[in-house]
Amino acid sequence: MVFENSILLTTLSQSGFPDLIYNFFLPFVFSFLILYSVIRLLKLFNNKISAILALIITIFFANTQAFVTFTTTMSQFTGGFAIAIFFALFIFGAVQYAVGRGKGWEREFGNVDDEVKEINKKIAKLEEKYDETDDEHEKDEIDDTIEELKRRRDRLLHRGRT
């Protein structure tokens, strides 16, 4: 029989269930996914054929010492790589958050007077437009807009004082 002295049978007979999961199943799935991804990337076959081909190659590959070496090395590499990527993304996100939080600071706290002046100009223009129009519906809309701008101006002035 081809599998008599195989690494797979030795591993299965000597190890318990947790060892089977960590030393065979997860590396097998890991190798399958890498091989399947490479085959899909090449776009030579459709999904089903790519999956079957990757499964067959992984089953034959699982019977060799190269499988154990490859999966051990790759799992150590990917573990360290994942930790490094996590910390890099964490630091990048923290810096991005800190920089983004500083944007608009002047608008929120420093330039209240400028924004109030802009709102007063808009209110003055709308009041002129109100006086010029005869349409009651348009006057109602202008009134609503002026009231909203006045509320916004009051909020800004209140926030600027506190």
Helix content: over 70%
Shape type? elongated
Question: Which regions have little confidence, pLDDT < 50, spanning 5+ residues?
Answer: none
What value does the average pLDDT take?
Answer: 79
Taken as a percent bin, the fraction of beta residues is under 5%
**Tally of separate helices:** 7
Separation of the first and last Cα atoms: 85 Å
Element string (H = helix, E = strand) = HHHHHHH
Tally of extended strands?
A: 0
Domain count: the total is 2
What gyration radius follows from the Cα positions, in whole Å? 34 Å
Largest sheet: none
Give the class from helix and strand content and strand pairing: mainly alpha
Walk me through this protein's architecture.
The chain is mainly α and 162 residues long. It folds into two domains: 77 residues, no CATH class; 57 residues. It contains seven helices and no strands. The chain starts with 6 loop residues before the first helix and ends with a helix.
List the helices and strands and how they pair.
Blueprint: H1 7-14, H2 17-42, H3 47-61, H4 65-102, H5 105-110, H6 112-132, H7 136-161
Which keywords apply here?
single chain; 162 residues
Structure in a nutshell:
This protein has two domains: 7-83, no CATH class; 105-161.
